[in-house]
Amino acid sequence: MAAVGCTALGVLGGCAHxxxxxxxxxxxxxxxxxxxxxxxxxxxxxxxxxIRDYGAKAQAGFDNSSAIATAILACHNAGGGKVLVTGGRxxxxxxxxxxxxxxHVDEGATIAFITDPKAYLPAVFxxxxxxxxxxxxxxxxxYQQSNIAVTGKGTLDGQGNRTTWWPWKGGNFSSVxxxxxxVPTQExxxxxxxxxxxxxxxxxxxxxADGAYLRPPFVQPYSCKNVLIEGxxxxxxxxxxxNPVLCENVTIxxxxxxxxxxxxxxxxxxxxxxxxxxxxLFDTGDDCIAIKSGRNADGRRINIPSENIVISHCExxxxxxxxVIGSEIxxxxxxxxxxxxxxxxxxxxxxIRIKTNSVRGGVIENFYIRDITIGEVxxxxxxxxxxxxxxxxxxxxxxxxxxxSELKCGSAQQVFQVRGxxxxxxxxxxxxxxxxxxxxxxxxLEELDKFVAKNVKIQGVEFKV
Length: 465
Fold this sequence. Notes:
It contains four helices and 33 strands. It has 465 residues and is mostly beta strands. The protein has a 25-stranded mixed sheet that branches. The longest helix has 13 residues. It is globular.
């Protein structure tokens, strides 16, 4: 189905490649259940290490970095258990988790993270926008650890705001100019990093910490197994909130992710395998959930997809997208299941979104969505090969086998922004039993092959292809 454009309510012309709806039956969702059964959260020994026993104080201005690190080390050396944060607001620098440690933040307790960038030195091996660097430590970081967790009903406060961390973004982002006169921004370092990546500069030589102004992720387990993030509220992030990288068996359950700063992605699993995201609330300044796999040359060099991801019973409010794949997607994504989620906000720009281009490339396949309720959104369904750089590279993306069923949308500016390439059409996009009640425009459908719409209504009128 090539170059079919829709700018007003109406019915598309016929499609010569319209198969029967398939791929979204019980067998597919049985795969999601298999992933759920496979991904079991870590269990920790019944030992408690109260950070106050290691010198921590809930006092304004008191740096608890050393006390928390000592408690974590003691817990790890004892064979694991719970490091307890309770009884107040604790200021800290970066926290590095170790195997078999559950950092538990009690209800009413807060870890507030220092905003002085020098606290996040020395540099660590990290990913930033899908590129490998030696950069500022993430606020909570773990490297090559197993059986780790951050749990509890307490709060992790990154203390990012219009005067700390966020001005480094600079320019206009979401129609906001984050820069402050006289305060440097990330632009020069980001451009240089892009060049370093394309030139295959060794990662050990990519020093992008002090003086580079690249904001650190909030929580980044890197090359870890058996990861649990449960119950906590994460707010005021410098950059992306949850960013597991190259991890396996990850559970994110009942987390509140509330941060309206620039690049405040809620949860970005990157090159991860076997991930459960459930019962979470997202109110973010960027994508609520964005599944990634590395950017451009780095993503292709590492070449590890994100796969086997199940998202359920989540609520999305503000955000650039509700459930998103991309844009750092060069390693590919496969086998993503989304069900029983709600989304709604005047500031929610897109509901379901895939974003890539011929600079990013990647293969995105087997993306299944069902039982989604959208109250208010700007564009309901986006699959766009013209993101940012557009068709300016030599790595043509592939997107295939996308199934959306039982999606109910109350109000949208437009239903579709779906644009493939003529040489690489979007393959097998299937919609079934969807209802878009109040819509200004159908939007755009360009370069599709095997597009199916079965029992799809737009403003009460059946939509046919």
